[in-house]
Amino acid sequence: MDTDDLSEMAYGIIVHAAQVSDTLKADLGARNLRYANEDDWLRGVQKLLQKIIQEPDEYMDYWNLEEEEGVTASQIQEIAVYLYRRADETLARPFPKRNR
């Protein structure tokens, strides 16, 4: 699947991630290659976000985000919580209604 195939709601998750971290944005966008459809991508994104919520320091250290982007662990955790909720909202809406 390509990011061009994502609905507006789903693509919004990537856009919001970019407001905090370019690395997280790229990580979420690159994951689309692993999935056949948007719902599977959203569930995969939620798995990553759940890991970040539980262990933000691990994600920070892996990507060296504090030094590279000036992002703190609390910032990455907060955006992960927000994006997880947006993924839930997107999954709850039928696909044809996600572009509104």
Structural write-up:
With 100 residues, the protein is mainly α. The chain is 70% helix and 0% strand. It is built from six helices and no strands. The protein has helices at 8-18, 22-30, 38-54, 56-63, 65-69, 73-92. The two termini are 21 Å apart.
Spans of at least 5 consecutive residues with low confidence? none
SSE string, helix = H, strand = E? Answer: HHHHHH
Strand segment tally: 0
Q: Give the DSSP E fraction (strand runs of 2 or more residues).
A: under 5%
Whole-angstrom Rg: 13 Å
Structural class: mainly alpha
The outline comes out as elongated
Helix content: over 70%
Largest sheet: none
- Let me know the average pLDDT: 95
- Count of individual helical segments: 6
Straight-line distance between termini: 21 Å
Features:
100 residues
What is the structure about, briefly put?
With 100 residues, the chain is an all-alpha fold. The protein has six helices and no strands.
Secondary structure topology:
Layout: H1 8-18, H2 22-30, H3 38-54, H4 56-63, H5 65-69, H6 73-92
